[in-house]
């Protein structure tokens, strides 16, 4: 009976689903958060700490935590992991030099016990830039095919225009409704 009630609560949207948005500095995390919220590009400055917003997709509510990506802040990411259902890793598709660092951070996160049941969404941001890598290239560099314990998806996007973000929200919604 309890399981049925929990499923009904999920379907009817009475429960918030915790999402963390992480990535290296200048990847576009905060712009994406506010693009999700307002469907407009907003001027942002580097996040010191975090921003949090509730985003509703049909009747599904997400509590999204945008966490600063500067090197000094990455050590505190794990304090946000508890009860996280979806991890969004935002990758700057033009930043080839830091792909190895993105890979290290991703795999370090996924090894954390608090994220053992979390789904992973990789947003390949800045696809509007001429020298951007494709999602397939980023997937290969991040060795996403080696991720077996988590549901994952990679999505091309542009934080400034919002391109690719509605599909991202729909993927997230389908993940939480499937659980």
UniProtKB/TrEMBL annotation:
InterPro entries: P-loop_NTPase (IPR027417), Small_GTP-bd (IPR005225), Small_GTPase_ARF (IPR024156), Small_GTPase_ARF/SAR (IPR006689). SMART domains: ARF (SM00177), RAB (SM00175), SAR (SM00178). GTP binds at residues 23-30, 69, 125-128. CDD domains: Arl5_Arl8. SUPFAM superfamilies: P-loop containing nucleoside triphosphate hydrolases. Pfam families: Arf. One of its GO terms (molecular function) is GTPase activity. The keyword Lipid metabolism does not apply. It comes from the Eukaryota. Mg(2+) binds at residues 30, 47. Keywords: GTP-binding, Magnesium, Metal-binding, Nucleotide-binding. PANTHER family: ADP RIBOSYLATION FACTOR-RELATED. Belongs to the small GTPase superfamily. Arf family. This is ADP-ribosylation factor-like 5C.
